[in-house]
Write a sequence for this structure.
């Protein structure tokens, strides 16, 4: 094992690599080259790219847990989930392909998973079952991951191919008719306003459950 190479250093370097070159370019060998060590030095800590992504996703969620803990407690589950969603999105947006990295990863630190316990305690005291609480967290997480993947794709495309999501070209491509579809396309917003609107729809859906 190469002296000075730790899992923490690997993850820090991997997140920096991600910001520079994106997820597709990230491999264990490419990261080893960046750290100026043999790939075998990294394989001592992470066996493959998926384990590397697991560690990166876990580190992102540690930061989410810390940021969420600093948010003043709200009046109930809706405030809690909204705050969690906003913190999660903010953390993903700090890194290029941040949401893609998290998607499908396995948390490797039990303390990160334990961060849900205080939420579950409050929600079950209000009448929820533990499975309902877990479903709500999973649903909001899935929403944020999908939203930010799309958000980051559009933002990155704007810098490399501004025409990729051109509304005018989309109108021409749709051809005659579809006036309501075209109108909706012109009314779409992006960023925080769109996020809050979609988040509200997700939370409304959870609120419609009989046990909520």
């Amino acid at each position: 094992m190469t002296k000075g190479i730790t899992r923490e250093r690997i993850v820090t370097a991997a997140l920096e690599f991600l910001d520079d070159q994106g997820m597709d370019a990230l491999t264990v060998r490419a990261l080893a080259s960046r750290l100026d060590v043999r790939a075998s030095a990294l394989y001592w800590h992470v066996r493959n790219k998926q384990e590397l992504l697991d560690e990166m996703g876990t580190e992102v969620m540690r930061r989410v847990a810390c940021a969420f803990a600093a948010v003043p407690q709200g009046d109930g589950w809706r405030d809690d989930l909204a705050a969690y969603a906003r913190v999660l999105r903010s953390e993903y947006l700090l890194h290029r392909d941040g949401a893609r990295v998290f998607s499908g990863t396995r948390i490797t630190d039990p303390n990160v998973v334990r961060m849900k316990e205080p939420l579950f305690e409050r929600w079950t005291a209000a009448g929820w079952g533990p499975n309902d609480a877990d479903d709500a967290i999973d649903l909001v997480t899935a929403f944020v991951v999908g939203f930010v993947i799309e958000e980051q794709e559009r933002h990155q495309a704007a810098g490399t191919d501004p025409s990729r999501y051109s509304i005018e070209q989309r109108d021409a491509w749709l051809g005659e008719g579809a006036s309501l579809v075209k109108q909706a396309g012109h009314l779409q917003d992006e960023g925080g306003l769109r996020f809050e609107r979609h988040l509200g729809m997700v939370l409304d859906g959870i609120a419609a459950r009989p046990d909520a």
